[in-house]
Design brief:
Blueprint lengths: L2 E7 L3 H12 L5 E3 L2 E7 L2 E7 L6 E8 L3 H14 L4 E8 L2 E9 L5 E10 L21 H11 L12
Length: 163
């Protein structure tokens, strides 16, 4: 079964971990110096927070697929919705390696659909090809699409890291 994903930027990671641990009545599944994640079953959500220098608030929303087939189905749905869909293969982000599809909704909210392939030892790849601030795992799909068109290839080559 797929899982809804929410990622918040926070100003105080420790206080936020305490708050969400109590709210969800569950310890985080992953805790790092700049990141925490809860994999909840009720409600079924992948809820992540990070303190990486970005403005506090909702960073992006997403849908986590259980497998490659599920990710392809999300891709078909995103195409049907009419947004620009930008693939990112084997991205290192949020202490995981994932295949992703990025888009924005009509008001500019970033959406990430992804299938996690395994764990990673860093929050993001140090040589992130498309990141503008070096701290973000949430690309600007419009900028990525422009770079793809200009270069003729995806800006996020395998293992390049977060765009």
């Amino acid at each position: 079964m797929n899982r809804f994903h929410v990622h918040l930027n926070v100003t105080d990671l420790d206080a936020s971990i305490r708050f969400y641990t109590h709210l969800f009545a569950s310890e985080p599944a992953v805790v790092k110096p700049d990141y925490a994640k809860w994999m909840l079953d009720d409600p079924r959500v992948n809820f992540a927070i990070s303190h990486t220098g970005r403005a506090p608030g909702v960073d992006h929303l997403g849908l986590q697929a259980d497998d490659d087939r599920g990710l392809r189905e999300f891709g078909r749905r995103l195409d049907a919705a009419g947004g620009s869909v930008v693939p990112e293969q084997a991205a290192i982000c949020c202490y995981a390696t994932s295949d992703k599809l990025w888009t924005e909704d009509p008001q500019g909210t970033r959406w990430e659909t992804f299938h996690t392939l395994g764990e990673a030892t860093t929050y993001h790849a140090g040589d992130a090809a498309c990141a503008t601030d070096g701290a973000s795992c949430t690309p600007d799909p419009k900028a990525m699409k422009t770079k793809v068109a200009a270069a003729g290839t995806a800006c996020c080559a395998p293992r390049s890291g977060c765009c």
